[in-house]
Amino acid sequence: MIPVLTLSRIYPLFIISVCLVVSAGCLSPGQDDQGQGILVAVTLPPQEEMVREIGDGRVDVLVLVPPGSDPHTYEPSPGLVARASAADLYLTLGSGLFPVEDTLADRLLAMNPDLVVVNTSRDVDYLGTGERRDPHVWLSLKNSRIMAGNTRDALILADPGYEEMYRENADRYIARIDDLDRKISADFLREDPGTILVTHDAWGYFARDYGLSIISIEQEGKEPTAKDLEALITRARAQGVTVVFAEAQENRREAEAIAGEIGGSVVVIDPLAPDYLANMERIATAFAGS
User: Fold this and answer.
1) What is the DSSP letter of 162?
2) Neighbour-count burial of 89, counting CB atoms closer than 10 A to its CB (0-12 exposed, 13-18 middle, 19+ buried)
3) Which long-range contacts (CB under 8 A, 24 or more apart) does 154-158 make?
4) What percent of the chain has pLDDT over 90?
5) pLDDT range class, residue 21, cuts 50, 70, 90
6) What gap in Å lies between CA 203 and CA 46, rounded to an integer?
7) What are the chain's domains?
8) 21: which residues sit within 8 A by CB, 6+ positions away?
9) Contacting residues for 15 by C-beta, under 8 A, at least 6 apart
10) pLDDT tens digits for 199-235?
11) Which of 29, 140, 182, 209 is most buried by its number of CB atoms within 10 A?
12) How far apart are CA 163 and CA 141, in angstroms?
C-alpha cells in the first residue's frame, strides 16, 4: 500500500524548503552557499591589505612572515605551515626573491598538491638580475599596481563565481594606488629630489620611481667595514644629509652612531607595516621632509 502524506505532514516540509531557498538567496557577497570564503596565504604583512581590499570579506588572509620579523631569515613554525597548507591560494612576492618564500611554496605544495601558487610580481621590471634581483618589490607603488592586477586575476582563478566583485574592488584599489603615486611624485617634483641615507638596502624601487639618490649603510646584505663607514660619513656630510632612516625590525645602535657623526638624527620607518598605502604615504612624507 502506498503511504499517503497528510497536509499536516506536508506543511512543515514546505516551510523548511522555503526557508532554505530564502536563506540561500540572502547570502552576503563574502559567502558561498556553504557560508565559506577562501583562505589566501601571503608572505608579508603589506600584501594583506591588498588581498583584503580586493577580496572584500570573501577571503581570509594568513600572513606567513609576521610583523617584526626579517623576511630574509625568518622560518615559520610547523603550526603556521600546517595552517597554510589548508589554503586555497598562496600569493607569493615572486620566485627567487626571498629564499624563505621558495622553501615555503615547495613545502606547502608537497602537503597540498591542490594549492594554487601565484607570483604576484609577474611583469614587474625588477632591479638587478638573477640571484641579485632586488626582492623589495612592494616598496614601489608602480610595482604594487601590477601586483594588484595579478592578485585580482589569482582570486578570480581560485574563486571564479565572484569575478565581477574582484574586478570592481581591484579597480577601486588600483585607483587609490594611482592617486597616492601622483601625490608622492608631486612631492618630489624638482630637479634634485635629494639624497636619502638608509640602514637597509631596500629602497631601490622607491628611488627609481621618484628620482632619489639612496645611500645604504648595508650593501647586499653585508655589514659595512670601517673603511665603508668612513666613506659613507664623508659622502653624507658633503651632501648635507642629516637624517638616518632606520627600519623598525633592526637594532638602531649603528644608525645612532652614524647620526652622531653627521650631526643628525634617526627616523624609524617600517617597510613591513600592514597598512600598506597609509604606510607608503608616511614613508614618502618622511623622506621628503629630510
Assistant:
1) G
2) buried
3) 154/89, 154/91, 154/116, 154/118, 154/120, 155/38, 155/40, 155/51, 155/54, 155/55, 155/58, 155/59, 155/89, 157/116, 157/118, 158/38, 158/40, 158/88, 158/89, 158/116
4) 71
5) very low
6) 15
7) 38-185 (3.40.50.1980), 189-289 (3.40.50.1980)
8) none
9) none
10) 999 999 999 999 999 999 987 777 888 898 999 999 9
11) 140
12) 24
Q: Give the β-pairing of 116-119 and 38-42.
A: unpaired
Nearest to 50 by CA among 136, 135, 153: 153
Residues 6+ away with beta carbon under 8 Å from 31? 37, 58
Distance between CA atoms of residues 79 and 238, nearest Å: 51
- Burial of residue 143 (CB within 10 Å: 0-12, 13-18, 19+) is buried
Give residue 263's pLDDT: 95
Residue 215 β-bridge partners: 197
Mean pLDDT, residues 119-134: 92
CA distances from 246 to 34, 145, 195, 197, 283 (A): 47, 26, 15, 9, 11
pTM summary value: 0.84
213-216 vs 195-198, strand pairing mode: parallel
CB atoms within 10 A of CB 66: 13
Provide the 10 A C-beta neighbour count for residue 227.
Answer: 8
Rounded to an integer, what is the distance from CA 119 to the centroid of its chain?
12
Helix 226-238 × helix 253-261 angle, to 10°: 50
Residue 67 has pLDDT above 90, yes or no: no
